[in-house]
Write a structure and sequence with these properties.
Length: 599
């Protein structure tokens, strides 16, 4: 019983101690807060003090780092939870001036990737179109050395195979008969007048008579009335210009014989590709009649001049054709893998790092030694393209680190923050009437808030347009006319009632111009008139795409300076590779990408 009483007293004692400790801590806490309030009231009367940002917990959006709030919550743009900004190095100094600052979480979510600018030997894959041709060094044109009449034709048709020395035709020539009589007279006095004898033999030799034929005339002591025209080489009769009974004059062409066991393939190389091509470069090509088979050869010769009409130079390769698989006139497509002609190291960057707008090329350079990702806007000058890379003419230095993935997201952040960007190289806040909380964004080229269904319908019109453009590339006026009807049908399916206000009025203006130019294409069977109307169509359609947008990820706006009588012409394409609708095969690769529109 005594033990129980003692135990109860011990528990009461512990309880009293705990209560006293709690009262002491509460007093200290509230007293400290009173002192803080008093100090705060005293400091509030001090002018010139800025207490904004004393709270270390500034909050931002991982996808929209321009959003900064003093308390947690949701991003007013995307609705994501805000995160503390404590890990973001705001940076200072000139290297951070105008830089786009991102948290590590934002860079990860945006999939920002970078690479270091290096020097290397650029390698480019050049696509070429060409044609199989006869080897000019293996061709023989048989002309008449003297006038006469074709008595007999031994060649029945063009394309016939002949051997060296085989008869092609038999000719009767009074001139040849007289020359033979001169030889027989000189032969009787060859010992007393050897010079006259040698001259008579030489005359017949110059007329393509062999020593064997001349000796036979001497032995027969009678001139031969008929002379056989013999093939000087083995090969194929490519041309036959005479028939039995025809009279031929001295120097007139009678036959063309070519040895097709070795052929040339001549490819057209555009002048901007020539710096990449050297004699001896390996080249692989295919022909349509032999699908799946690849021929390997080397560049044997490069034309020393440029064709003024096609702006191309010929590349010649030789190929063994003893199997007879290739035939002159066949079309061939080739790929040539080459470094620059001077084989020098060049400064190179991935093409995914570059943003194009008009004549400007833009990259984002990572600020060195920053704790968190920071990127600065930089305009550069690019050189030739080498596969997935571009040569850099100016604007970057070796060793600098640039963004190669997620570049559009960095640029979008720069636009939202009013810093230098692709669409706003001067920097500063810009507005297009879009309201995202208290943020102003976009530029005069920014697309309107177009209804999704309207964009779907406009995209269907664009797809029909691309099909018509491809027919222009093929230089097929009938196909252009047919596909332009699909274009006008797609345009009629675009519902203008989906738009309202200024957007509706803009579409009304553009619709009238689009209809007019497409009708001109439909009403014409002349490919050049169709191309002229297509030129006007693109001037309007560009404004349409920029105003309302498409549901294509990327559209390439391309330009040929030689179109429209050297005044230039534009068109849209789904691919970056140039396929010129204004010239077709004549100048298929003439042009460049002037703008890459990302919707």
């Amino acid at each position: 019983m005594k033990n129980i009483i003692n135990k109860i007293k011990e528990n009461y004692l512990i309880l009293i101690v705990v209560l006293l400790t709690g009262l002491s801590m509460g007093y200290a806490f509230f007293n400290d807060n009173d002192r803080k309030d008093q100090v705060s009231e005293e400091l509030s009367g001090h002018e010139g003090h800025d207490h904004e940002g004393e709270d270390p917990s500034t909050w931002t959006c991982s996808m929209h780092p321009q959003i900064k709030q003093e308390e947690p919550g949701d991003c007013p743009i995307c609705g994501m939870d805000l995160i503390p900004l404590s890990a973001l190095d705001e940076g200072s100094g000139e290297e951070y001036a105008g830089a786009v600052m991102m948290s590590s979480e934002a860079a990860r979510l945006a999939d920002i990737q970078t690479s270091v600018v290096r020097r290397a030997k650029p390698v480019k894959t050049i696509y070429l179109q060409g044609k199989v041709e006869t080897d000019e060094s293996e061709m023989a044109e048989i002309t008449s050395r003297f006038g006469g009449r074709i008595e007999k034709l031994h060649i029945s048709f063009t394309g016939e195979q002949v051997n060296k020395g085989e008869k092609l035709a038999t000719l009767y020539s009074p001139e040849l008969v007289n020359a033979q009589r001169e030889l027989l007279e000189a032969y009787t006095m060859k010992d007393s007048h050897p010079a006259i004898y040698r001259a008579a033999r030489s005359k017949l030799k110059l007329w393509d008579l062999s020593d064997k034929q001349i000796n036979r005339i001497e032995q027969q002591s009678e001139p031969e009335l008929y002379f056989d025209i013999l093939s000087p080489i083995s090969g194929t009769v490519m041309q036959r210009h005479v028939s039995a009974g025809d009279y031929v004059k001295t120097g007139e062409s009678m036959f063309m014989v070519s040895d097709l066991s070795r052929l040339w393939v001549v490819f057209d190389a555009y002048e901007d590709d020539l710096p990449w091509i050297r004699e001896g470069d390996s080249i692989e090509f295919t022909v349509r009649s032999l699908p799946g088979k690849t021929f390997l050869s080397e560049v044997d010769f490069i034309d020393p001049f440029i064709n003024s009409k096609t702006r191309t130079a010929g590349l010649r390769v030789e190929v063994d054709n003893r199997q007879g698989e290739l035939k002159p006139g066949m079309f061939a497509g080739a790929k040539l893998y080459s470094t620059t002609a001077d084989n020098s190291d060049e400064l190179m960057i991935r093409r995914s790092a570059i943003l194009w707008t008009g004549k400007r090329s833009v990259v984002y350079v990572k600020v060195a030694d920053s704790e968190s990702p920071a990127f600065t806007y930089r305009e550069i000058e690019t050189g030739a393209r080498a596969g997935e890379y571009y040569l850099v003419a100016s604007g970057l230095e070796e060793g600098e680190e640039i963004a190669t993935n997620g570049v559009f997201k960095i640029d979008a952040a720069a636009q939202l923050e009013g810093k230098k960007s692709m669409m706003n190289p001067g920097g500063g806040k810009i507005s297009t009437g879009h309201d995202h909380g208290n943020m102003e964004m976009g530029s005069e080229d920014r697309q309107q808030d177009t209804p999704s269904l309207f964009r779907d319908q406009l995209t269907a019109f664009y797809d029909a347009y691309v099909s018509m453009k491809d027919a222009l590339v093929e230089t097929d006026a009938g196909k252009v006319k047919s596909r332009s009807r699909d274009v006008i049908n797609a345009l009629e399916d675009v519902d203008m009632a989906l738009l309202a206000g200024d957007a509706h009025m803009q579409w009304m203006d553009q619709l009238e111009e689009l209809e007019k130019t497409i009708r001109e294409i439909i009403d014409s069977d002349d490919i050049e008139k169709q191309r002229k109307a297509f030129l006007e169509l693109n001037n309007t359609f560009y404004r349409t795409v920029k105003t309302f947008g498409l549901n294509h990820d990327t559209v390439y706006y391309q330009y040929c300076p030689m179109a429209n009588n050297d005044q230039g012409g534009y068109w849209f394409s789904n691919e970056e590779e140039i396929r010129n609708p204004y010239f077709g095969d004549m100048m298929l690769k003439c042009g460049e990408v002037r703008e890459m529109i990302v919707n």
